[in-house]
Amino acid sequence: MSAVPVVAPARLPRRQPAPAPLEIVATRSQRRARPRAAYAVATVIGVFAILLAQLALSIVLSEGAYRITALESQRVELDRSAQVLSESLDALRSPQHLAMNAESLGMVANASPAYLRLADARVLGAPVAAGTGSGFLHGGATVIGNVLLSDVALVTAAALETSTTVGDGSDAGSAGVATAPTATTPITSGAIPSPVSR
């Protein structure tokens, strides 16, 4: 055979991978200072939570303001009704009303009363039996009329009898209640009427 020179195949140059694009690498302190997405999400959620809390607080405060306004108006109404009841109680406590109720129940005023002195058991004054027809209901001039009592009902003996016989608490006593007459003392010579003093 003939000697053929053996030629070694030429080596092909290796393909080098394409160089990666250049990237700026941050230092550790720069990476720590950079905000992360979790922090941003937490901040947004916190802002929304604060806004919702402020909205709920304003709703509660406005509801409280409405409640305070309603209670103040209720207090004003209760004050007015208490004042009306106090005035009607004062009218019922007046001496004129007590005298008219006593007379409607059968009591009479004595024009010449007698008194008993307990120290020596002596009677002072001349005791005379009281007569009817001299009291306030019958035009007696010893008591001044009260205009506030013109619409107030008087208690009568019949009303007391029916209220004591009826024990069920029904309103049977109102049938015997008489209305108070307008007791006015005639004004003479333009003077203000006053009680007779002795």
Describe the structure.
The protein has 198 residues and is mainly alpha-helical. It contains 4 helices and 4 strands; from the N terminus they run H-H-H-E-E-E-H-E. Strands 1-2 form a two-stranded antiparallel ribbon. The protein has a two-stranded antiparallel sheet with strand order 3-4. A hairpin with a 4-residue loop joins strand 1 (115-117) and strand 2.
SS strand fraction: 5-15%
In the sheet with the most strands, the strands line up as 1-2
Looking at the structure, what is the overall shape? Answer: rod-shaped
Low-confidence stretches: 168-187
Could you give the distance between the termini? 182 Å
Helix content: 40-55%
Please render the helix and strand layout as text.
Blueprint: H1 28-33, H2 37-93, H3 95-104, E1 115-117, E2 122-124, E3 153-154, H4 157-165, E4 178-179
Antiparallel strand pairs: 1-2, 3-4
